[in-house]
Amino acid sequence: MKDKDAAAVARGERMINEDLLQKQKKKRLTAHEVCDIQARVVPLHDGEASWTRHFSQADIVIEAVFEEIGVKHAVLKAIEDVIPTHCVFASNTSAIPIGQIAAGSKRPERVIGMHYFSPVPAMPLLEIILHSGTAPEVAAVAMEVGSRQGKTPIFVKDVAGFYVNRCLGPFMSEVTALVEEGVDLLLIDKAMKDFGFPVGPITLTDQVGLDISAHVGSFMAKSDLGVRMTGGNNEVIPMMVKKGWLGKKAGKGFFLYEDDKKGKKGGGGGKARPLNPEVLAFLKPFQKVTEESRKITAEDIQSRIISR
Questions:
Q1: Which end of the chain has fewer beta carbons closer than 10 Å to its terminal beta carbon, N or C?
Q2: Domain 2-156 CATH assignment equals 1.10.357.10
Q3: Which of 127, 144, 181, 278 is catalytic?
């Protein structure tokens, strides 16, 4: 596992360890199995010369850097200078076409997409995205790795939004429209959880990160989905990003996560997190509350969002 510096890679290690200990607590793993997995994690960062030795033996590298093609190409180039020629380079991109990422590769046939979903330890789905030049054996490697990870891998086309975000983009457009109509954020989340979703869309946005949501939303708005991507003000989330409300990773988004930053589990065990009062005040000027919008029920919310 490699990140830009010691602090960043330590955060990754901490997340792995916390997840393993939770599984041990729930008796899904034994103490021996937890120690065995922890012993196989090798934390590395850019400041350590030894990272190149470790990566020179890799069979597959899964990249999950920021959603910007220049950053993706820079990482791809740095990794390709080190990895063996047979190594598969998989990108965990949410929206960037895999063909566009592969265009910056010396071995485009070894490039593939492996898109995981948040929270990654809990979400079973894995999108495997092939561009037009991906070699068949590379697709087989991605399927094998995803299956070994306990995921449910599906092969999808290299089109805007792949599979999930082509569904989620219109879904979130309707959520934005409901927020603009002044519908209570907690009611939106509760309605969708009651419908059967593991988390509500407001919580999901915080978990994924508002910066990622803004990037994907902007990309999907320019895609081939037409009227399905209309509804609500698409500038609200980017404006929240500029204010530093990035969601859980920043300690605040639609909800507050200050307890997490102090190392406590403030929202664990089903305890409700408080909404961010700064966000509620920020949203007010954008909201157009009417007599009709005041009457919106949980069933209305479910029907509108799901029909998208």
A1: N
A2: no
A3: 127
Q: For the domain 165-307, what is the CATH code?
A: 1.10.1040.50
- Residues of the chain with pLDDT > 90, as a percent, come to 80
Contact 118/208 with Cβ under 8 angstroms?
Answer: yes
Q: For 173-204, what is each residue's pLDDT tens digit?
A: 999 999 999 999 999 999 999 999 989 999 99
The Cα 288–Cα 32 span in angstroms is: 57
List the structure tokens of 106. Answer: 């010396």
Return the pLDDT at 67: 85
The beta strands (E) that lie in 77-206 are given as 88-91, 111-115, 125-129, 152-156
Secondary-structure percent of the chain, ordered helix, strand, coil, rounded to 5: 50, 10, 40
Q: How far is CA 232 from the centre of its chain?
A: 22
End-to-end CA gap in the chain: 38
One-letter amino acid of 48: E
State residue 258 phi and psi, 5-degree precision: -60, -35
Separation CA 139–CA 104 (nearest Å): 19
The rounded distance, in Å, linking the Cα atoms of 85 and 96 is: 24
Blockwise average pLDDT, block size 10, the chain, 308 residues: 96 94 96 96 95 96 93 96 97 93 97 92 94 98 97 96 91 95 97 95 94 87 86 90 94 87 46 89 94 95 96
- 127 as an active site residue: the answer is yes
